[in-house]
Amino acid sequence: MAERHVLGLSGGKDSAALAIFMRETYPELDIEYFFTDTGKELPEVYAFLNKLEGFLGKPILKLNPHRGFDFWLKEYNHFLPSPQTRWCTRQLKLLPFELWVRPMLADGDTVYSYVAIRADEEYRTGYSSTNNNLIIKLPFREKGINKEGVRNILENSGVGWPEYYKWRSRSGCTFCFFQKKIEWIGLLEKHPDEFQKAKEYEKLAIDHGSPFTWIQGEPLSELEKPERIAQIKDEFQKRLQKEKKKKPVNPLLPEIEIIEIDDLYYDDEGAGSCNICHK
Ligand code: SF4
User: Is residue 255 predicted with pLDDT exceeding 50?
Assistant: First the structure.
């Protein structure tokens, strides 16, 4: 019987900052870092994880689902995952984690799982453990580390931000339905092949009678029209300028403005996302 310490990386900023924080604050802990790889990740996510591995000085274990996105999509009759039917998180994120820790728990080990929920996210809950030997720890909440704290950790460590933050504020699958419209346009412009794939998945879903498109009420074939793109970009700029006016200018911040797109759209397009996939 042993104690195991595990920390899941999503490819996003909060979990990366947590890994750095734990490495620096508790160097005596032998933490096993893992990433549940859906096989539908942006190349920028892998590049960021590689950079993080360099800082941590140890490999990040990739937990691949036994069966990938395409298998499950077919199982669900080509219905796209959606906030109402989130089969993707269950099959591609939670199940691989559970299968990985199950033998540890069966051996009687105590597993501490560190989750990057920040002190300023009172409303968020993480994975609920049903096993007394799987203990969920929230170090940022315990130590009062908020969004600004995360920013400092990333910058001071030299790891910095994932490259995709210039156009998208969340990690997770390339096609994630939690993306805002402006992020879909980012995908179209940065990774047009992936956008085309997303359109194909959507067409297949509609052909199979799915009520869900990636964005509810607006298929990607409509979103990609030039006049619609211009409209969405214009709307985004207005929100961005309004947000900037609210914030004091900090000359110490890096040149690249880190945009939390979720913060700009909290009042519509849904503010939801997923702690398991996006932290
Ligand atoms: S990132 Fe989005 S699409 Fe991927 S598993 Fe999570 S909720 Fe589903």
Answer: no
List, for residues 168-227, the tens digit of each pLDDT value: 888 888 999 989 999 999 999 999 999 999 999 999 999 999 888 999 889 999 999 999
Centre of ligand 1 to C-alpha 112, Å, is 24
C-alpha–C-alpha distance, residues 266 and 91, integer Å: 28
Burial class for 228, CB neighbours closer than 10 Å (0-12, 13-18, 19+): middle
d(CA 180, CA 176): 10
Band (pLDDT 50/70/90 cuts) for residue 242 is confident
Measure the CA–CA gap between 77 and 92, rounded to whole angstroms: 17
Q: Provide residues with CB under 6 Å of ligand 1.
A: 38, 81, 86, 88-89, 92-93, 172-173, 176-178, 274, 277
- Atom number in ligand 1 closest to CA 278: 1
Mutation to probe ligand 1, out of 36, 38, 201 (largest number of atoms < 8 A from CB): 38
Query: What's the distance, CA 237 to chain centroid?
Result: 24
* Topology at the third CATH level for domain 3-162: Rossmann fold (3.40.50)
Each domain of the chain, given as residue ranges in start order, spans 3-162, 181-278
| DSSP result, 240-253 | HHHHHHHSPP-TTS
Q: Whose CA is nearest to atom 4 of ligand 1?
A: 173
Nearest residue by C-alpha to atom 7 in ligand 1: 89
